[in-house]
Amino acid sequence: MPSSNRLLRVLVTPPKPGMLDFVNKAKWDAWKSIGNVSQDEAKQDYVNLISSLVAAEGPAQVVAKPTGSSAAFETLLVTTEDNITTIRLNRPTKKNAITVEMYNEIIKALELAGNDDSVITVLTGSGDFYCSGNDLNNFTKIPEGGIEKLARDSGELLRGFVKAFIDFPKPLIGVINGPAVGVSVTLLGLFEVVYATERATFHTPFSQLGQSPEGCSSYTFPKMMGAAKASEMLLFNKKLTATEACQRGLVTEVFPDSSFQTEVWTRLKAYAQLPRNSLALSKQLMRGVDKERLHAVNNQEVEQLVERWLSDECMNAIMSFFQAKARL
Amino acid sequence: MPSSNRLLRVLVTPPKPGMLDFVNKAKWDAWKSIGNVSQDEAKQDYVNLISSLVAAEGPAQVVAKPTGSSAAFETLLVTTEDNITTIRLNRPTKKNAITVEMYNEIIKALELAGNDDSVITVLTGSGDFYCSGNDLNNFTKIPEGGIEKLARDSGELLRGFVKAFIDFPKPLIGVINGPAVGVSVTLLGLFEVVYATERATFHTPFSQLGQSPEGCSSYTFPKMMGAAKASEMLLFNKKLTATEACQRGLVTEVFPDSSFQTEVWTRLKAYAQLPRNSLALSKQLMRGVDKERLHAVNNQEVEQLVERWLSDECMNAIMSFFQAKARL
Amino acid sequence: MPSSNRLLRVLVTPPKPGMLDFVNKAKWDAWKSIGNVSQDEAKQDYVNLISSLVAAEGPAQVVAKPTGSSAAFETLLVTTEDNITTIRLNRPTKKNAITVEMYNEIIKALELAGNDDSVITVLTGSGDFYCSGNDLNNFTKIPEGGIEKLARDSGELLRGFVKAFIDFPKPLIGVINGPAVGVSVTLLGLFEVVYATERATFHTPFSQLGQSPEGCSSYTFPKMMGAAKASEMLLFNKKLTATEACQRGLVTEVFPDSSFQTEVWTRLKAYAQLPRNSLALSKQLMRGVDKERLHAVNNQEVEQLVERWLSDECMNAIMSFFQAKARL
Predict the structure, then answer these.
(1) What number is the average pLDDT over the span A297-309?
(2) Which positions in chain A touch C277 (Cβ < 8 Å)?
């Protein structure tokens, strides 16, 4: 045990049934006050706390993988019809939070959609949420290499994920069926068209979690809406309504919730009848102007985010998140 | 005759008086179904069909060229007054569609305006239309080198035309007196100020014609309005009202049609009294940031468009256009 | 005396008590008509006229410099509280016009704020104005090296001033408490967030004074609002209301004047509680994409402005300004 500090004793104590008591007592100030704990010890404490809190949540959802079909996904529903390939995030009970598996499946689904004979590709969500962003449980399965390896692996995953959007060769349409959070918002800067229900909101609370922007938003958002509106979102966590997002250029058009699906899919079916190559080549022309820049931005964002994940600010904020969750 | 296919027999048959019958029967599917026609033969068919349809339209407008005055144009009215050089597209009966001759004359007029002692230069249209874009008849006068030569020549013409706008050294003001289509819209991203009557609309139906964006719009439009609004126009053919164009930054201000000319020219005359060099150098400063990029974008757009013009998608769409016209 | 021209005789005559007469007579045309005056002589005339007009204004404000505290400024009020460093322009009787001293003090204050332990930095103004821009009296204290040296020195000062904003390492918030003019407007493109009272206006009348844009606005303004809206401001002197500035992305949000300070500072205090490093690094990430470009733009803008300051157009416009002032 690295320290006899009272908090640390609590941290390494198996949390249940005492966990709620612990959570109520563990104020953030306490963490900051551990003057005699080294950086390595702090990381170990993070690992211990997170593991115990997550263990208290019960086992993660595990679904048996269907075999024999390459188009079968565990976290997505992917269909191709009327020249449209639709990738539907399909963890509605978890607000379509993106797990490690879902990151990998979206990369795979985009690769398939890019090569199939569809004209346009649609990304949307099942249920009332579009996507609640990165599943913070991704930060709780700490591998043997420890928290540094977790951060590096997560960085590589994110880099490849965003790269798949930068390089996607066809028009990509977002059908935003409800609230969107984090990376599911920032990526919209790489879509061709974004249609949103009036119920949708757009929230990128990076600094609250001690993190920093990704999805190329540090480049696409200021380009799209100017620095003064982009920073309000990316630094100061402003949550936008669908109408505000439309005024800022993040969303192409907003629809009443009652007619959202009907109106949007009518349009998409019309778009999918347009000359296939003309659309793909025009999209690639527009993307080409920025492509090299986007890859560089993606790399820099990921590099900084990996450092952020290993920072006290970020680990504290994530612990705070799980403590608040445990308290409920 | 390259094929005994029924459609092809029709294609090489002198079209009148049977042309309307032909048009009614020649469904798009038919064209696509010609499995045994090679790419070269398809191009020859295009040449034959287009020639015959255009021949049916009657002779092209030919106006005697006035001699002896370098400022005299056939397709433009160009005047200089009150420090303002005005270039007025002047084919009102053709909605100011841009012929090969008009492309060349606009290049010449911009060169003269850039070197005269005016302070600002205005581009506007005669009649109710601002400009209906590229005159598709440009694609019907097929030279000896065949359709490849036509495409290459058209590409060089377009490249030089857009270049004249990129390099124009003074403030360039668009006075958009009515609907604008195609390249007359995309070029507006290279203007300093764009004033529009409320009657104006802005339409870039490239993919409908199997084509792709030009006029540097693949760069200027996303920069101005964000990718989600730019792609709706440039990929999916969204036609904007003047007010929508103003909200997206394509138009500086919209005026009631009744007072449009009065209000706009009052302003322009005031602008033309401002210090000449200050205006020109400030414009060049702003353009300088992007100039190299704009030339590169222009080159890439033209290169892609030449390939598009030689594609089946595009030739089919243009034939479809002329067939629909013949049907009226 | 370089010339016996009637105007020049007037120019070198001690102006008081005859100055108002002189001003009424000295029409702009007269200046232009001096065909036999060389460029050097014209500059000397500028020096003489400006000196005499300024002399007629009475001595410049001189305030005793407080000694012994490095955070004491003559033209600014700088405080740090609640993790916020506030830099307040403090020449309210001069509408916070920026003198040479104030340029230097703002550079110094930004350097200190960048290195102190505050989380965010705020720039605002004392009194009813935010800032009336460059104090034209800066052009009246002509050093021994003459007007060329004045222009070069002013250029170096401006370059360093704008550089301090480009390189500022933390979120920078503008609290725009009233009208803003000139460089105080253009610099806003380098801020993270801009909150404005509804009373604020935004005016960049560069061409009126024969000058050209600075503060990186030739890059940030077109990027933010598109060329058609940027040129209207930077070339044609359009003054924006706060609401218009917000629609164009120059301002983040507009507040009623009655609740402006309360609402804004409530937010700022909340922002200042967010993780310090996350905010600073996120800001640097967003700035990093553009930083090299911004420095290049700053250099080009300054280079052009130095040439402008030495031009007849500009000297004439500044003389005109002081003559109009003397006339009041």
Answers:
(1) 97
(2) 210, 311, 313
Asked whether residue B321 is domain-assigned, the answer is no
Size of interface A-C (CB pairs under 8 A): 101
Taking an 8 Å cut-off on Cβ atoms, the answer to whether C286 and A234 are in contact is: yes
Tell me if B67 is assigned to some domain.
no
- Residue C72 phi/psi, 5° resolution? -90, 130
**Domain co-membership, B171 together with B270:** yes
Structural domain of residue A47, as residue ranges? 4-58
Tell me the C-alpha distance between C274 and A212, whole Å.
Answer: 12
Q: Name the closest residue on chain B to residue C303, using Cα atoms.
A: B285
Cα-only R_g, chain A:
21
- SS3 assignment for C198-256: CCCEEECCCHHHCCCCCCCHHHHHHHHHCHHHHHHHHCCCCCEEHHHHHHCCCCCEEEC
Q: What value does the CA radius of gyration of chain C take, rounded to a whole number of Å? A: 21
* Total domain count, chain C: 2
- For position C173, which CATH number holds? 3.90.226.10
C240 shares its domain with C96 = yes
Task: Give the chains touching B; criterion: ≥3 Cβ pairs < 8 Å.
Answer: A, C
ipTM score of complex:
0.83
Nearest CB to C285; choose among A212, A225, A311: A212
In degrees and rounded to multiples of 5, residue B280 shows phi and psi of -65, -45
Q: Is the pTM of this model over 0.90?
A: no
pLDDT tens readout for residues B70-85: 458 999 999 999 999 9
Tokens in use for A312?
């006290």
Q: Flag residues of chain C having pLDDT under 50.
A: 1-36, 59-70
